[in-house]
Amino acid sequence: MSSALDPLMEAYNESLTHDRKFYAQDIDGSIAWARANKNVGILTEKEFSEIERGFALVKDEWDANTFQIKPGVDEDIHTANERRLGEVIGQAIAGKLHTGRSRNDQIATDLRLWVRDKLHDIQNHLGSLLQAIIFRADAEIDFITPGYTHLQRAQPVRWSHWLLSYGFFFAADFKRLKNVIDDLNISPLGSGALSGNVFGVDREAIGRELGFDGLCWNSMNAVSDRDFLIETMSWGSRFMGHVSRIAMDLCIYSSQESGFVKLSDAYSTGSSLMPQKKNPDALELLRGKSGQMHGLLSGFTTTLNSLPSCYNKDMQEGTSSIIATISLLSDSIQILTGVLTTLTVHPANMRRALEPSMLATELADYLVKKGVPFRETHHISGKVVALAEAQGKGMDALGVPELRGVDARFGDDVTACFDQEAAVEKRTAKGGTARESVREQIEVLKQLLETGKMPAWSVTA
Fold first, then answer.
1. Residues 6+ apart with CB under 8 A from 430
2. d(Cα 312, Cα 310) in Å, to the nearest integer?
3. What is the rounded (10 degree) CA torsion for 375, 380, 383, 388?
4. Cα three-residue angle 234-239-244, rounded to 5 degrees
5. Exposure of 365 by Cβ count < 10 A (0-12 exposed, 13-18 middle, 19+ buried)?
6. Are strands 278-279 and 269-270 parallel, antiparallel or unpaired?
7. Cα–Cα distance measured from residue 317 to residue 332, given in angstroms and rounded to the nearest whole number
8. Active site residue 49
9. Between vectors from CA 133 to CA 132 and to CA 136, what angle results, nearest 5°?
10. 3, 150, 272, 306: which is the annotated catalytic residue?
11. Could you read off the pLDDT tens digit of each residue along the chain, which spans 461 residues?
């Protein structure tokens, strides 16, 4: 270049503000690269040892937050680390480090290493979330609550069953996350700018040193592939969709109209005007952050759309997007875990919300067992609901003669249908809300955390 960059362009172009987070991964990749160059004779054993020693000091500076960035010189993490290495061990050796390597394959490597490390952290946080759900589901299995469809009270269920409904959403996320990690864990290092390496470095040895499971098999693809970022953001978008749903449910359940749960003060705030209010800010923010996650995915997907082959500077926008994604996901999982761990449940309020009309299906099932076709029993049960509403009382307050007035096949034992606990315990098929079915679901989630897999069939004898 014959002239200096415009100062605004210099600031517009630099990425160190974001990719400084990759300092450890960049150093690990550089050491692996130096070792590969030593093995083909580009570096001597002594030169390689000096590079290792120098990078250990550079990493210590980053760890201690004493690394001195030089504005206008350190454009990105790669130039910053290499510049500092030269100051520590001398440019005569440090200047050999980049032989055969491009920042194109270097940033691709740094990104894969950093995202892999952070997704392992997220995997652990997600495991803690599942453990919190399992613990509450087991401890609070006796609580009966209304189950809702269309935000209308529908049928009684165990509170644990509701918890586990989200547990299985997050269990599916847990399994998919492993696939995301497995897919991204391949090494691009040694691909150069686009056409490969001329010095015959052992890419497989480099990949193994860095903990990769395989190679990017085409050098042009290796430097241009950012699908692993899209897949991570896509996973995050789906996960945050699930988070937004449980957050919405808990907002409703924590309202004064419901009163099923009460959030801890650690995850709530008061009103600046109305002292009596306790706002579920954690839940509302979780719900709102899901929109931000969808936006990150949409934005970077659009950035990659119609790019020409190999590396283009547009891809640099993926760095800030993936850092924001990881931060959002990590924080959100831990916040949700905190909410679920500390909230107080009010089973008495749940019980009071159980309306007799929620047992209308029990009447229909009662007649089914007497041989009446379900479509007919559904119609009969609806007549009973209408009769109770017309008389201004619950279905359970109707006498047997009144029920027989609707259909003569109702017997004296029909009153047993108006037992909320019994209605719950009838749902014994796998996946249902009966106590033993719920306990089996708990065991399935426990097995997932222990083995990484969910059983296809029964886990209990």
1. 437, 440, 458
2. 7
3. -130
4. 125
5. middle
6. antiparallel
7. 23
8. no
9. 85
10. 150
11. 667 888 999 899 999 999 999 999 999 999 999 999 999 999 999 999 999 999 999 999 999 999 999 998 999 999 999 999 999 999 999 999 999 999 999 999 999 999 999 999 999 999 999 999 999 999 999 999 999 999 999 999 999 999 999 999 999 999 999 999 999 999 999 999 999 999 999 999 999 999 999 999 999 999 999 999 999 999 999 999 999 999 999 999 999 999 999 999 999 986 666 766 789 999 999 999 999 999 999 999 999 999 999 999 999 999 999 999 999 999 999 999 999 999 999 999 999 999 999 999 999 999 999 999 999 999 999 999 999 999 999 999 999 999 999 999 999 999 999 999 999 999 999 999 999 999 999 999 999 999 988 887 766 55
- Which residue type sits at 192? G
Active site residue 255: no
C-alpha 199/C-alpha 190 separation (Å) is: 10
What Cα–Cα distance (Å) separates residue 422 from each residue in 138, 215, 316, 339?
19, 58, 60, 31
Instruction: Give the relative orientation of helices 435-451 and 159-184 as an angle to the nearest 10 degrees.
Output: 20
* CA–CA separation, 190 and 219 (whole Å): 8
**pTM for this entry:** 0.93
Of 271, 309, 327, 458, catalytic: 271
Buried b or exposed e, range 309-321, using 16+ CB within 10 angstroms: ebbeeebbbbbbb
**Cα–Cα distance between 33 and 97 in angstroms, integer?**
8
Query: Across 124-258, where does the E strand assignment appear?
Result: 144-149, 152-158, 186-187, 214-215
